[in-house]
Amino acid sequence: MTFLCYNSGMWEKFKEEMYFVGAQYFAFWAKIILKKWQPKIVLVTGSAGKTTLFCLLEAQMKEKADFAYHANSAYGVPFDILGLKRETFSLIEWLKLFLLAPWKIFKKNERKEIYIVEADADRPGEGEFIAKLLKPAWVLITNVHQTHALRYDKEVERKKYRVVIEAIADEFAQFARYAKEAILINGDCQILVQAVEKLQLNDQVANKTFFLQEADYLNEYNLNTNGSVFVINKQRYELPYLLPREVALSLAMVQIVVKEHAIRLDLSYKNLSLPSGRSTLFKGIKNTTLIDSSYNANYGSMKAILDLFDAYPVNANKWLVLGQMLEQGREARKEHEKIAALVSNMKTIDRIFLMGENNEKWVKPLLLRFRDEQQVIFFREPSELLETIKQELRGGEVVLLKGAPMMEGMVEGLLADANLASSLVRREEVFEKQRREIYGPKKS
């Protein structure tokens, strides 16, 4: 039955070649539902921080809007519109989904008038594909970073772009190109600003395109052991999550969207719930504090969490467990060396644990120029690194876990309460199997 497995090489190659062909099939049926439904669509996107912005909007607008949860791709968005769900990722399941899709258009629509979608641009063409399907009223873009760069290398090879980041920025700009009412952009991200400014927007949308800059909105930012404090436009937010400074512009965007839709802003954000793996706090073994940032790993998200960790106000030893960044393509060395430069300037970090061949090649040598070998330790096997950390913890340390691959397995192994593992990211069986291969079977 190997040919049915999601991870088989043949299946992966087939999926890549037929990606948009299959997505177009599901989009066809999704368009029929959208035509009948006619929601006002607010689209949230960006290389990093889009899920946080999505959750901030949910906390304010949940009673007024429907939200596309866990559905940000050319397949995920149509699936959410159609009410389809993937669980096993097997070939048989895909065949079942193909057969079910046409029948979904007959389902009675009981959804709300506003539809809020988080979308990504993992590959060339995906941003435009999703934007053409949704034709969103509002588009909110948090930033652009070197994410999924491996898939964009060919755009540079074809001489279409000078560097990969330009290709990525142009793809994210496609979301704005199809906006019908308004666009909110991170104005501090110059590569994104340049990409959007090249678009030929109609006068109505151009007049409601706003480039937000942190200096114009952020009045105060502080961290404490229990969360974050932001003052945006003189409005104070005390949020029970460790959130990086970059979230300030997301809070500003929410202010604008909520006001536009005549919704009263809840300064307490009492309904805010962020998914796991995004600087989530857990109690670890030996009375340690774990900061779980295992969801993704690109330069933008890494810089945000590393800056946060450096400023985190605790009187305890800080340990950094750093995995590598994947899918960086021709820019892999440059991106990892940028991370090494960030970490080398962090004065509050006591020990640094590395894993992943990219970290061995490019991060470790640069860090050893500034730290001794007892402070910077590399492991090829994640299971060995996990056991070493368990043995060397003395108690009370604060441990940040960031990067790939499968860093959530490291978090799971360090939890004081093993039952909390169910709240970590990537709980599907396909990922559980991969974690067992990396870390070994769970210990009872």
Task: Tell me what the structure shows.
- The protein is an alpha/beta fold.
- It folds into two domains: 2-260, 3-Layer(aba) Sandwich (UDP-N-acetylmuramoyl-L-alanine:D-glutamate ligase); 280-439, Alpha-Beta Complex (Protein-Tyrosine Phosphatase, Chain A), CATH 3.90.190.20.
- 41% of the residues lie in helices and 17% in strands.
- It contains 18 helices and 15 strands.
- It has helices spanning 9-17, 19-37, 50-61, 76-82, 91-100, 126-134, 153-157, 164-177, 190-197, 203-206, 214-217, 247-260, 299-311, 332-344, 357-367, 382-392, 407-414, 429-439; strands at residues 40-45, 65-68, 114-118, 138-141, 182-186, 209-212, 218-224, 227-232, 235-239, 280-284, 288-293, 318-322, 351-355, 376-379, 398-402.
- The protein has a six-stranded parallel β-sheet with strand order 2-3-1-4-5-6, sandwiched between helices. A six-stranded mixed β-sheet has the order 10-11-15-12-13-14, with helices on both faces.
- α15 links the parallel β13 (351-355) and β14.
- α8 crosses α9 (190-197).
- It is globular.
- The two termini are 30 Å apart.
TL;DR of this structure?
The protein has helices at residues 9-17, 19-37, 50-61, 76-82, 91-100, 126-134, 153-157, 164-177, 190-197, 203-206, 214-217, 247-260, 299-311, 332-344, 357-367, 382-392, 407-414, 429-439; strands spanning 40-45, 65-68, 114-118, 138-141, 182-186, 209-212, 218-224, 227-232, 235-239, 280-284, 288-293, 318-322, 351-355, 376-379, 398-402. With 444 residues, it is an alpha/beta fold.
Principal-axis shape: globular
- Say what the CATH topology of the largest domain is: UDP-N-acetylmuramoyl-L-alanine:D-glutamate ligase
Q: Unreliable runs, pLDDT <50, ≥5 residues?
A: 1-6
What is the strand tally? 15
